[in-house]
Design brief:
Distance between the termini: 59 Å
Oligomer: single chain
Radius of gyration: 22 Å
Bound molecules: 6-O-phosphono-beta-D-fructofuranose
Shape: elongated
Number of strands: 15
Strand order of the largest sheet: 3-2-1-4-5-12-13
């Protein structure tokens, strides 16, 4: 039997669903029956800290132990129950224009005799995977991001767990908001995509949902709130995506500068909006930023299952020697798309079919009637 070595890594922001995917990459690659059938004998190596693990595999001052280690079935047996990533992650960009270390990555892939690389990540991590593929690396991708903004797939790991967090936290806020007759502005993550705010807001029955895809008018927000107030609402919940902005303004950032992939650190729109609303409506308004709570905690059942299917499908792609692809979920089926397609453009909310631009909320017709 041919012997093959598979490296698996997680890159970018962590989220629930990564550990289930790693578990199923390992279990499927090491499955005796499949190995006999496929006539390949696999060894799987966990690469720690995303692409950093292939830049400094022997570790560094911050992390002195080796970053490439064998993974066994026994080691990953319980991983599908846990949030985060047991391999660690980083936002390291080997192709950072200011410090291009992609050659080091290529050398280390050779040095550690990695025949295949499974990269689990969002647009940044899979963007790197795509560039490596073009340089000859046999790579496959698994989509993850709570933002659910990758193209070519209807699902990215972490999204459902994050929506569950938003829903649970808003359920909690409702009782305190109602007791005090307050408005609560809840800021979600999502960068340039409004999916988390929209579907989190829909799941929790938010009164107003503001998304980056549609610039809102503050006067309209206040008008809607006063309308609710006149109808006797004791409190209201507004969900605002961190990347949302009002007409004529730009996104609010919590820190100046950009990371090695060119992203700004967004945050602060919730607080800004709450102040604005309370000044105009005179209704006491508070804000809360859910921030990394959305990425934390155990994966929900859906993320465990999708992590499993994506992990299995990634090894299927390797067995079929179908590289440069990302496993994907489309129209109810697990399939695969070229990495190029997945990262070509962001998948954002279509305001014409998925958003009500008058009520600043989810759509109110679904079948187009
Ligand atoms: O891309 C995932 C995400 O959670 C975004 O929604 C958010 O803007 C960003 O990562 C936050 O990144 P960090 O964890 O580096 O603060």
């Amino acid at each position: 039997m041919e012997k093959k070595r598979i490296g698996v890594l997680t890159g970018g922001g962590d989220c629930a669903g990564l550990n289930p995917a790693i578990k199923w990459v390992v279990k499927t690659a090491l499955d005796d029956r499949l190995q006999r059938m496929r006539r390949i004998q696999c060894e799987v190596f966990g690469i720690r800290d995303g692409w950093k693990g292939l830049i400094q595999p022997e570790g560094d001052e911050g992390s002195p132990t080796p970053r490439i280690n064998t993974l066994t079935e026994e080691m990953v047996r319980t991983w599908d129950r846990y949030g985060g990533t047991n391999l660690g992650t980083s936002r390291t960009n080997p192709y950072d224009p200011k410090n291009n270390r992609s050659k080091i990555v290529l050398q280390n892939i050779e040095r550690y005799h990695l025949d295949y690389v499974v990269a689990i990540g969002g647009e940044d991590t899979l963007g790197v995977a795509h560039k490596l593929f073009r340089e000859g690396v046999k790579v496959v991708g698994i989509p993850k991001t709570i933002d659910r903004d990758l193209s070519g797939t209807d699902y990215t790991l972490g999204f459902e767990t994050a929506v569950n967090v938003i829903t649970e936290e808003i359920d909690r806020l409702r009782t305190t908001a109602g007791s005090h007759r307050r408005i609560f502005v809840v800021e979600t993550m999502g960068r340039h995509a409004g999916w988390l705010a929209l579907e989190g807001g829909e799941s929790s029955g938010a009164y107003i949902i503001l998304i980056p895809e549609y610039d809102f008018e503050i006067e309209r927000v206040n008008e809607l709130l006063m309308e609710g107030n006149r109808k006797g609402a004791r409190y209201e919940i507004i969900v605002v995506a961190e990347g949302a902005k009002s007409v004529g303004y730009s996104e609010i950032v919590k820190e100046e500068g950009i990371d090695s992939f060119g992203h700004k650190a967004l945050g602060g729109i919730g607080e800004f909006l709450a102040k604005w609303i309370s000044q105009v409506t005179k209704i006491e308004t508070r804000s809360i930023t859910l921030s990394h709570l959305q990425r934390g905690g155990a994966p929900c059942a859906y993320d465990r299952r999708m992590g499993r299917y994506f992990g299995i499908a990634a090894i299927d792609l390797i067995a079929k020697e179908d590289f440069g692809k990302m496993v994907s979920y489309r129209n109810g089926k697990i399939t695969a798309v070229p990495l190029e397609e997945a990262i070509a453009k962001l998948n954002v909310v279509d305001i014409h079919t998925q958003y009500d631009t008058e009520r600043y909320n989810g759509r109110r017709t679904i079948l187009g009637a």
